[in-house]
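Q: Two folds, back to back.
A: First:
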Amino acid sequence: MKVKVLAAAVAAALGTLSHGAWAANLGLDATFCASNGNNLGIGADGRRHCALPFEIFPVNNTAPLDTIVLPRTNSVDETILWILPGVVTVGDGHVAGRTPTTPAAILKPTTLRIEAGVEVKGAIANSALVITRGSRIEADGTPENPIVFSSLDDNYTGAGEWGGVILSSWDNTNACNTTLGYECQMEGISEGAFHYGGYVSDALTPGWDTQSSGRLRYVVIAEGGHAINVDIDGDPDPNSNTGDEINGLTLYGVSAATEIDNVHIHNNLDDGIEYFGGSAFTTNIFVTCAGDDSVDWDFGFNGFLIGAYILQRDGADHAFELANNPDDFAAAPVANGFIANVTLDFVDDTPDVDAPFGLKEGTGGIFENIKIASSYTGNLFAVPFSYGNPLFVGAIEYAGVDNSPQGLLPAPTTASGYTGSIFWADYPGHCD
């Protein structure tokens, strides 16, 4: 209830501001909001509340990757709480037809830099941060001062209270790579309004599929998973939405040039992290209490997940739901990600979850050093079986049943799994 009351108050404060006015510049309040937000006053938490614009890019953006900074404190030494008033986009790369050769004045490539210790909160359920094609996020926290994304309340017990964090780029995906000019549409967000990927000629734009979307280091994403819809039609309900829920962290066509390390996704209503194609290299990922799948990949993902701790709540779906392409199981590139050094744990001694591995739609995959808690004794693979040629190598520790027709798993043995530690000091340590 508290988050709804707070959301209503913020929505009312923002109600007189149009999307067009916000998009004009970021110099909204120099004294209290570092020229990059609208001053909402001091909140009940004693912090200065600054609302971000719906569209983030500098005025007359012509220089590559102009930088917008979200500091932890303002010029009068107040701590800033940054607010997402709705769906906030960085750059203009989500618009149809944007390519790496689109002029900067149109693409508006922008870097959003978030300082260590900053908190960013979704004011309403229909809020999210979207880094569009050609733009970057530089969210570089520390173990002592992580960057935290969550809903606008004073705890981390909710789920689906806001959307999530989305990164997008042009890396390869078999969802839209067959014809020059094709591009993909994002899921769980306004239909037809947000695009990623796209078949671009490498001969004409070399390196288009290796562009960096920036950096996420020591970042927490909590309480997300709400479906989001951009409120551009005058609808008086800012919480209105269509489509599926979104993931805590979604990577659309993101390349291995992007650094994603030590990210903790907690209490997301939908999946924890999902990769739509691309080759993202992700390390030290923590997914706790996801409502659906913990890790999901689709559409030709060929990246890496090295080091992960997963805690599944009762009623959750798979720890790993991995697919290639629902319309063409053999679509190239075939999904063949690499997962290693993972510990899968459960909230109690009799887990009420789906099979850990949901491999489908022609996916491949390589799995090494996976430790599944002995409390899970059921089937390890979801049926029906529709995977390609997944390969399990090295140590795999499990007490469940290898029900795959081919006997995919080697004999159970002791695995070290993930040996790192959770960096987030405010992690509740359980699922609510």
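A: Second:
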Amino acid sequence: LAGQSGAGNNWAKGHYTEGAELVDSVLDVVRKECENCDCLQGFQLTHSLGGGTGSGMGTLVPSPKVSDTVVEPYNATLSIHQLVENTDETYCIDNEALYDICFRTLKLATPTYGDLNHLVSATMSGVTTSLRFPGQLNADLRKLAVNMVPFPRLHFFMPGFAPLTARGSQQYRALTVPELTQQMFDAKNMMAACDPRHGRYLTVATVFRGRMSMKEVD
């Protein structure tokens, strides 16, 4: 589904004019997809907050070092109100953190959008792991929200991912559970450019994939 024109990096144009014209078509497509579902869990929306089209709601928060739009801070500020009021869970991923991971951890000289999207898709896949594999906690999106959101407006999550591997890489080093946990809470593995050691945690959810026991995790 596509429109004929862009929003020109203008939040109001994307929210009230260009976007408003496509809402009915989008809802119709969503309705048809929902009718094919046996057990609808919810919706994952992946947008940028920097441009005009994507800044209505989304999960990619702009960063100061890799901004290509002058009005990006305004678009993000106007979008946050919609995210606070109208979403149940928001995963914050910013471009600065993605580029830092590509440069420092993955040793990529010139990361492409494919490399950045690989990190985003791996994170999104990890978030929904409990829907596709058996587990003891957070068996669906609703339970994840119940366990992770202490207050209704505090639903902005900062995801971390470990181990980080380059796109197409088949080389995996065996890691212990303590090593994985340490990497997850390392600033270099965070999808938002901030140091998790500064501040306080209200809730934390850790999702492990593979063969391991709860005794190892504890």
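Q: And?
A: The radius of gyration is 18 Å.
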